[in-house]
Amino acid sequence: MPLLSLKSLGVFCNYDRRVLSRHALVSALITFSGNGIVIQKICLIACIGCLVLIASVTSAEASVEERSLVFRNVKIFNGEDLSLSELSDVLITGNQISRISPSTIDVDDDIRVIDGKGNTLMPGLIDAHFHMMLAAAPLSVALAGPEGYLNLLAAQEAEKTLMRGFTSVRDLAGPVFSIKRAIDEELIVGPRIWPSGAMISQTGGHGDYRHTNELPRSSDGHLHYSEQVGGAAIADGPDEVIRRVREQLMLGASQIKLAAGGGVSSNYDPIDVSQYTEEEFSAAVAAAENWGTYVTVHAYTPRAVQTAIRAGVKVIDHGQLIDEETAKLMAKKDIWLSLQPFLDDEDITAFPDGSENREKQLLMTRGTDTAYALAKKYKIKTAWGTDTLFDAKLNERQGAQLAKMVRWYKPGEVLKMATSTNADLLALSGKRAPYQGRLGVVKEGALADLILVGGNPLENIDLVADPEKNFLVIMKDGKIYKNIAQ
Predict the structure, then answer these.
(1) Which of 43, 162, 246, 347 has minimal CB crowding within 10 Å?
(2) What H or E segment, with its residue span, contains residue 201?
(3) What DSSP line would sit under 47-116, residue for residue?
(4) Which residue, 131, 106, 117, 4, is CA-closest to 394?
(5) Omega into 352 within 30° of 0, i.e. cis?
(6) Which stretch of DSSP H or E encloses residue 297?
(7) CB–CB of 328/311 below 8 Å?
(8) Cα separation of 52 and 43, whole Å?
(9) Do strands 256-259 and 295-299 pair parallel, antiparallel, or not at all (unpaired)?
């Protein structure tokens, strides 16, 4: 047994108390597992000691956290107004913003004070179209596993996502329930997650990743890996659709996602095809509404979008190929458009030149400028998200993908979209929302999901593209996860 493991364990048990946490212990146990019975016993004894230390430190610090923390001398982007406030103090009590004052807030000596030095305090960012289980996993792993490795990748990506300043994400397909639970129980670090669970798809639709040699499938036939783990659910006909919707709600879905049209990454559906009938969509909508929540659909084309809207769907994700008639219908029916800044640039998922997937991708990206123009013209409620898939390095550009929205909007409009507007979209889940309280704003009574930015992002939106350097403090639910403020 290498001595390095024992040495590492000693270092772990003497870890800086300010960063000692349950997720650090979990990481240590993973590191030391499988090293033999004797070493496991030593690790167990040492880690029990660490747990006692964690309990005492956590108990001592929790009482301080429950009192308050003050951000001093900050200018505020409140998530709604397109300008910054004058210098203010912001008092955090527990997990909420309890007071905002243009004058100094007096506090006791034991209350933590962070001097913002004139920098910008803003709401935590929200990604309205995310895939925690799929963002960092190569396509081959996402479709074949192993599941344990996929979860470890996702856990790592969850922490990176929070460290990029994204305190909430709307997860629109993937078996993310275990990751969400681990984050909520503070076993690992990550953002708040609004999960959809499996994307529900018709046979041959955007969520059908079976091979053709797996067809036909009888009622007791073998499920594809993506179905077994809960990434996709194949359903044909209203009865099957209702069953699959209810299964996701039972698992804890905050909203339901169906595939309404062809996709880029899927292999058997041309991008122009419409998927599901109005009757099938209506069945899904009724089942979701019985639980007080809503249905969103993956759709690019006018026909796919219009069919879904007629059936009562409230949110369209993508929509790059919509036309004037469809935009008018969306505005009239007060439908949300969750649109991504897909361009044929460095932020696009790579597909081989000449492949059908690449051709579909080019067709879709050519529609992005038109979709944003129509959304602005008809004042459609527009959310922002990334929809990054199968590439951890690409996901690192999450903030850069937000910054490039200035192609269509002013910086303040971009930041409003990624904070209060996206929070309004999350609120559509109603009582199925996994977290209660107001998000996306810096206002009294709101949840304390906050970023202290070094500079003014309303003047320089590129600050959000380099969060490691420019995000001085990252707070979620009143707890600080990063602090490099000097």
Answers:
(1) 246
(2) strand 199-201
(3) HHHHHHHHHHHHHHHHHHHHH-EEEEEEEE--SSSSSPPSSEEEEEETTEEEEEESSPPP--TTSEEEE-
(4) 131
(5) no
(6) strand 295-299
(7) no
(8) 14
(9) parallel
Residues 6+ apart with CB under 8 A from 46: 9, 10, 13
- Among 126, 66, 170, 189, which Cα is nearest to 450's? 126
C-beta separation of 105 from 93 below 8 A: no
Tell me how far apart the alpha carbons of residues 42 and 3 are, in angstroms, rounded to a whole number. Answer: 12
pLDDT top residue among 359 and 350? 359
H runs (alpha helix) in 169-301: 177-184, 225-228, 238-251, 278-290
Are 273 and 294 in contact by the 8 Å Cβ rule? The answer is no
Residues 6 or more apart whose Cβ sits within 8 Å of residue 158: 132, 179, 183, 188, 189, 190, 191
- Which position has the token pair 């499938």? 217
Would you say residue 432 has pLDDT above 90? yes
The DSSP letter of residue 119 is -
Q: Which of 345, 348, 352 is nearest to 388 (CA)?
A: 348
Q: How far apart are CA 259 and CA 276, in angstroms?
A: 8
Q: Which of 265, 269, 227 has its CA nearest to residue 248?
A: 227
CA–CA distance, 379 with 373 (Å, rounded to integer): 10
Q: What is the pLDDT of residue 234?
A: 93
Comparing C-alpha atoms, which of 319, 172, 337, 335 is closest to residue 256?
Answer: 172
Alpha-carbon distance 468 to 7, whole Å? 30
Residue 268, pLDDT score = 85
Instruction: Write down the pLDDT at residue 208.
Output: 78
d(CA 471, CA 70): 17
* Distance of alpha carbon 393 from alpha carbon 400, whole angstroms: 12
The one-letter amino acid code at 351 reads F
What's the average model confidence in pLDDT over 187-216?
88
pLDDT for 380-418, tens place per residue?
A: 999 999 998 878 788 899 999 999 999 999 999 999 999
Token couple for 254: 């905050």
DSSP 121: E
Contact 116, 446 (CB under 8 A): no
